[in-house]
Design a protein that fits this description.
The structure is a single chain. It contains no helices and eight strands. The protein has 103 residues and is mainly beta. It has one domain: Sandwich (Immunoglobulin-like), CATH 2.60.40. The strands form two sheets. Strands 1, 3, 4, 5, 7 and 8 form a six-stranded mixed sheet that branches. It has a two-stranded antiparallel ribbon with strand order 2-6.
């Protein structure tokens, strides 16, 4: 599990393989409590498939809201979703509050 501050700006690299080579593809990484509710997303990032594993770098702002988020990755080829994956890692956005101090 990864623990990040609310609204933290993060960068990363995603390793992806799409076949056949030479196709216009897109990949989207997003965090959510389920695969239909996107808390934050990289948006679709374009790449041309090489037929081999390749690195797609991304930037993402972490959610502002406390919670435990799943990591989802979708791959599209020619606009059609060809793969969806749920990562085994999760992202925790913690929260803390204080009730005051008495002297």
């Amino acid at each position: 599990m990864y623990v990040f501050s609310p609204n933290a700006a993060k960068t990363g690299a995603l390793t992806v393989k799409a076949l056949p080579a030479g196709q216009n593809c897109e990949v989207e990484l997003f965090l959510g409590v389920n695969e239909t509710t996107k808390a934050v997303t990289t948006g679709k990032m374009a790449f041309v498939s090489s037929g081999e594993f390749q690195i797609v770098e991304f930037n993402m702002m972490m959610p502002a809201t406390y919670g435990l988020y799943n990591v989802y990755i979708d791959v599209y080829m020619a606009g059609v979703k060809v793969a969806g994956w749920i990562a085994t890692d999760q992202v925790l956005i913690p929260e803390a509050s204080f009730g005051g101090i008495t002297w």
